[in-house]
Amino acid sequence: MTDPVFEMVDGTKLLVDLQQVNAIVTSFSGCLVPAEIACRVTNGLVEKFGCVFARIWLMEPERTALKLVASSGLYQRTDGFFARVPVGAFKVGKIAQNQIPFLSNQLAAESWVLDREWAISHGIQGFAGYPLIVDGDSIGVLAVFSQAEMLPEFLEILQSLCTATTIGLAAALRYQQEKLAWRSATAVTPQPVPLSEQIATVLKPTQLALVGTERALPTPLHNLFVRAAAVLSQLPCHHSRLTYQSDRSCLEAVIAGGSPTEIVTAFDPIKLEALCLGGTVTIQPRADRSMLRVVLTVIFAPNSVGGCVNLRCRSSLLQMAFSHQIELAGLSIAPIANPALPLITDDRSLVTFTPYLIWIATDDRIPPQARAKIDLSINPIELRSTVDAILRGESGNITTTPNLESPPLSEREREIINLLCAGLRDRDIAARLIVSESTVKFHINNILTKLKAKTRFQALYQAMIKGLV
Asked: Is the pTM of this model over 0.70?
């Protein structure tokens, strides 16, 4: 018979461990520097779980080796013997190659250990390694060493931590790559090619019409239009038009032929990126359904006069989305938190930081300190107006309603939301689960309803904060 006291102790330890994981994840929320995220994770493992030391390696661009980027505890240098580990070599390289978590409590007896005397002299028994995986590819490895024996359940705790760490690292790596690409493009091309010319080149032989005076757009918006043109170039596009207005730009296209379902699916990544940048993608069929009209619209604040706000989001994805919105609104993010400035946040621990609280509403529980609430559907002009109103002493109309629990996701719905989080398209999810694409869309609609989300991006964020992915 199972001892109920033993069960209670185990359950209590699991709860405490998960709280410690949450504290570590919170420590790197909003950070967009991969090495800094890795350092906060390894520091947290040493401080909160009593590990002798912890390390994180990240995959190098050529994907042949791992680079040590963070080391905490007994060893804090990152330039030693294991500073660079070939994929498939040693235990760390094999974990990256085979993507299999590993735990041992007899480190000195393991055949792959190079220096057994070192393990014995430091009293190190436990070793656990976990791959960091994004969309089926390893982007790094986390490893921890301990003097105490590690329970097999510790791998489950590491899984929870590694899932959140991987999401944060993936977002930070993408951000760093985009920033590096932008800097490289700026250095190589002092006079950038106008957007209309780039789109016309991508869409050849489709004729592009330019309406309005062309203007330089922020780099994220410029790149969004080019990527949308690349999608259109793979479809039977018969007409396109780029329009500039004082506060927005639009790329319109008419598609004749092809599967409407495949066309809509092809634009899913563009829809998600447009949402992050305060834009929209609409796809409208003609009455006879012989053609589809696709319109990408982005809005920006015209003639902005500057201004500064605090931004602190619990999720790095949300931090990135609102960072773009703030830039497009003609505002900047304060490098150091300042209580005299408006604070845009979804972190309840910060609600008393400033009298100018702008709450990112992910559910109906709005803090009473909030002066205004916003969500991912806000565009840059509305964001700028909200900030200006708060600084004038005005308040938004905030009403609160009882917090109703959302119905739980089914096992299949949780499986699909995890695949969406990994970046898979509907057709890829259907192929992996061996179901039809319409079945996948049916489950996604159910997920949106249960999570009270209007878009897939909002659903992914809700799933993250609820611990579903």
From this structure: no
